[in-house]
Amino acid sequence: MEEAIQKQLAQQREQEAILSREAEAEQRQIAEEERKIAQQGREEARIVTQITSSEARFDTNQEIEALLEGLRAGKRLQSLKNRAVVDANTDLRIVTALRRVIYQAKERNRLVAPRSVIQSISFNEKGNILASATTYRGIILWNLEGKQLQTIRSSESSRIQSMGMSNDGEILASARADGKIKLFDLEGRELATLMGHQGEVYGVSFSRDGKTIASAGQDGTVRLWSSGGKLLATLTGHRGAVYSVSFSQDGKTIVSAGQDGTVRLWDYEGNLAQTLKGHQGAVYDVSFSRNGKIIASAGEDGTVRLWDREGSMLKVMQGHGKKVNSLSFSSDGQMLASCADDGTLKLWNLDLDSLLALGCDWLQDYLATNPNASDEDRQLCGFPPRDPEIEEALGSSLGRAGQ
């Protein structure tokens, strides 16, 4: 009897020991996670400090110092992104600051459609073809070097207000001043005509799966259609004309923009979820990034604005001389195209890796030859630390040459 009791007590102590070890392991795991979160917070804080310094230096014309600070922040962000999820706003702020100093607020490329106002633009899924709709010349297909590949003209003379491209790049939709929406293939063959808006149609967009088309009209409504032309729903809420509409990548959210200066988010059932305000004047186009995290809007005030889905304005991008008519993200989300009434189409680089490479190329001579460049900064761009003996020899040589 006593032996059985002792055995039972021993088993109980062993079980308690196991539970204690498991609790200690769990506590260690929690502590480690908390340490990682705190470390990431400190890293992100350092990144924000560096990019704030870069922005301040750029504003005071210290371009080299601004770029160096931007590169430091970018490299730190690259390292952090390999280990953890980084706040999208921090990521975008670094990319914007780098792009600003590298390009001096100028675009990567400029495409010009002569004697015509570009009304609307859209990338194909691969990101290697850009379609633009001009007022009367039809739809023009371009490559990214600015070469016109093809022009698609309608048999009718009604003005094209906007256009959209299906995700597979096979179907083009044009919104027209006569209240119609026309669908074409890439050879220019007309596939269908959708009618229902009262007045002009200003915007058109495909869902990712291509099964639903959204349109925006002068009558203040957003309308959802099947790809076969059946009207599925009508969304109301804007005060005045609706100029643009776009689907999120998952198809669950619709974003619209209009004459009332607002950007509005709707669920698929037509319920208003969010209203974004910031543009001075009407908003002519709006689009989701391909990952659905960022919304870009184009305004009468000549700006392109970037927002998150919670409604916070992330950045204001300036450069067009007149009102911005349309914009489109590339399929990888690293390029944003915008076009305006000045007849230009601008490509904004949002890719961190390519900006870091361009920044290093821009600083190459400075890092290689300037004695004030630190070894830490040289290593940002792959330059080896200086050899003191070589530096001393070079200094002596230069000194003798100057005598």
In short:
About 35% of the residues lie in helices and about 35% in strands. With about 400 residues, it is α+β, with helices and mostly antiparallel strands.
Could you explain how this protein is built, in words?
The chain has 2 domains: 2-103, no CATH class; 110-350, Methylamine Dehydrogenase, Chain H (7 Propeller), CATH 2.130.10. The chain is α+β, with helices and mostly antiparallel strands. The chain has 7 helices and 24 strands. Strands 1-24-23-22 form a 4-stranded antiparallel sheet, with no helix packed on it. Strands 2-3-4-5 form a 4-stranded antiparallel sheet, with no helix packed on it. It has a 4-stranded antiparallel sheet with strand order 6-7-8-9, with no helix packed on it. Strand 18 (283-288) and strand 19 (294-299) form a beta hairpin.
Kindly provide the name of the CATH class of the largest domain.
Answer: Mainly Beta
**What ranges have pLDDT less than 50 throughout 5 or more consecutive residues?**
105-110, 397-403
User: Largest sheet, order of strands side by side?
Assistant: 1-24-23-22
In CATH, the topology of the largest domain is named Methylamine Dehydrogenase, Chain H
How big is the Rg?
28 Å
Q: What gross morphology would you assign?
A: globular
Quick one: CATH superfamily of the largest domain?
YVTN repeat-like/Quinoprotein amine dehydrogenase
Q: Which structural category do the helix and sheet elements fall into?
A: alpha+beta
> How many alpha or pi helices?
7
Assigned CATH architecture of the largest domain? 7 Propeller
**First-residue to last-residue Cα separation:** 105 Å
Strand content: 25-35%
Overall tally of structural domains: 2
- Helix coverage percent of residues? 25-40%
Largest sheet: 4 strands, antiparallel
The beta-strand count equals 24
